[in-house]
Design goal:
elongated, five-stranded antiparallel beta sheet, mainly beta, 59% strand, 1 helix, single chain
């Protein structure tokens, strides 16, 4: 079986469950912020090379975790990992499926260098 490259897009809406930092600490240049999130609604678009039809799937649930670390007054590094699936129903319950089923899953690891816009009041 030969693997073929695929073009895929995954879009979602995430609910940030926990952001562990006080607002004063999060604004400091050496802040460390841990974030846990739940990608709740996920939509997938997959079209393998050479295939005439695309597969589109929308579902629910996933999990994400991220860490932001400030390294200067206006910049911070972000490392995030997440997984999103197309579970059929918006609540986690057992589903008894009969027959062949297809599902979509997306995994992502991101490393970013973010710039914070600092607005200082003149009052």
């Amino acid at each position: 079986m030969r693997l073929r490259p695929r073009i895929g897009i995954a879009l979602g809406v995430a609910i940030v469950l926990i952001s562990l930092a006080s607002s004063a600490h999060a604004q400091s240049s050496k802040a460390r912020v841990l974030r846990l999130s739940v990608p709740y609604v996920n939509s997938f678009y997959l079209q393998p090379n050479g295939e005439p039809d695309a597969k589109v799937s929308t579902g629910f649930w996933g999990f994400g975790i991220g860490l932001s670390i400030g390294h200067s007054e206006s910049q911070y590094l972000g490392l995030n990992a997440s997984v999103a699936i197309d579970y059929e129903v918006p609540v986690l319950v057992g589903i008894d499926e009969v027959g062949e089923q297809e599902s979509a899953t997306a995994y992502a690891i991101d490393l970013t260098n973010n710039h914070r816009v600092i607005v200082k009041s003149c009052v």
